Amino acid sequence: MPIFEFQCEECGEIFEELILGNTDEEILCKKCKSPKVKKLISQVAFKSGSKFVSSLGSVCSTCKGGTCSSCH
Ligand SMILES: [Zn+2]
């Protein structure tokens, strides 16, 4: 799902917006309706990235396989 996170430069509100193809569409602040919003680094990509790292489990020095309790 192409969900992007935006922050309003007027009031500082942070909100998520579902973008369907047309990225030129004007995004308005959910709170004050200001068009002065900036796109933040995708929280969705950040989450899936951290999940990817933890699923590898290769950094554990105890079992080296990601299966012991210290891996989680
Ligand atoms: Zn705002």
UniProtKB/TrEMBL annotation:
InterPro entries: Regulatory_FmdB_Zinc_ribbon (IPR013429)
Domain Putative regulatory protein FmdB zinc ribbon: 1-42
Highest taxon in the source lineage: Bacteria
Pfam family, one: Zn_ribbon_8
NCBIfam families for this protein: CxxC_CxxC_SSSS (TIGR02605)
Protein name: FmdB family transcriptional regulator
